[in-house]
Amino acid sequence: MEMNDFCTNEERTLTSEDKEKLLNQNKRLVSDFQARKLEAEAQKHWDLFYKRNETRFFKDRHWTTREFEELLAVDNETPDIQNLLEVGCGVGNFVYPLIEELDVLHQCNKFFYYACDFSPRAVQFVRNHPLYDTKRMLAFQCDITTEDIEQHIAPGSIDIITMIFVLSAITPEKFLMVIKNLHKLLKINGVVLFRDYGLYDMAQLRFKSGHKIIDNFYMRQDGTRSYYFEKNELAKLFLASGFEILSNTYIHRRTLNVKEGIDVPRIYVQGKFRKL
């Protein structure tokens, strides 16, 4: 199995077959009634997702310090603790591999970790983990599209926010509200580290008729939803919310296994955004 990544500012070039798949998605859209129902029951669908899959579905994210050097840029000479917030922590596939890596580097005491998720069941899995320690971590349930998070975290107190495959699960009408909430939580010069699904990712092209809600926003079989981002659209959201763009690019990943006939083109959008 071979995996190749490269960064680019260019969108994926669609083949005629790809274009036909996108056109077919428009033959039958999710009804307005169903779309409203999906929004109203979003928490229920994610809780059921974690009930079915528990901690088995997502792989641990050991790549984050390679992509986001800010997670390692800790000054061991100063006693100051930095505050890190993971938005959409799931069952801990980001935060616990990070803790383990920083423990090895003797930087573990430089972060206090906040971890929140929409799903109460996911948060409970995080709390049940052997590494969960309230002296250096707080996991809690909240809806990041509201101001609920300020019940747990003081505005202007966070150094780094990570948001990895999270915004895509939220209705686009609330994107701007979410980014503005992140801005309020960050210190001046604090950063958001972001990765999510990119426009024309393989998973987007696989959706059949009856799953499209609006452009680039889809319903999965289990009732959860997924949005596919165009990078300039993402830049506008952050710029409108008081951030400057440190980086913002597509990551094209191709997984090839010639022997088994596997060719999987994935597209992500990845960025770093700093609070002005």
UniProtKB/TrEMBL annotation:
Keywords: Cytoplasm, Methyltransferase, Nucleus, Transferase, tRNA processing. Pfam families: Methyltransf_23. It catalyses: cytidine(32) in tRNA(Ser) + S-adenosyl-L-methionine = N(3)-methylcytidine(32) in tRNA(Ser) + S-adenosyl-L-homocysteine + H(+). GO terms for biological process: tRNA methylation. Its main location: cytoplasm. GO terms for cellular component: cytoplasm; nucleus. Its EC number is 2.1.1.-. GO terms for molecular function: tRNA (cytidine-3-)-methyltransferase activity. S-adenosyl-L-methionine-dependent methyltransferase that mediates N(3)-methylcytidine modification of residue 32 of the tRNA anticodon loop of tRNA(Ser), including tRNA(Ser)(UGA) and tRNA(Ser)(GCU). Interaction with SARS1/SerRS is required for N(3)-methylcytidine methylation. Monomer. Interacts with SARS1/SerRS; interaction is mediated via tRNA(Ser) and is required for N(3)-methylcytidine methylation. Belongs to the methyltransferase superfamily. METL family. This is tRNA N(3)-methylcytidine methyltransferase.
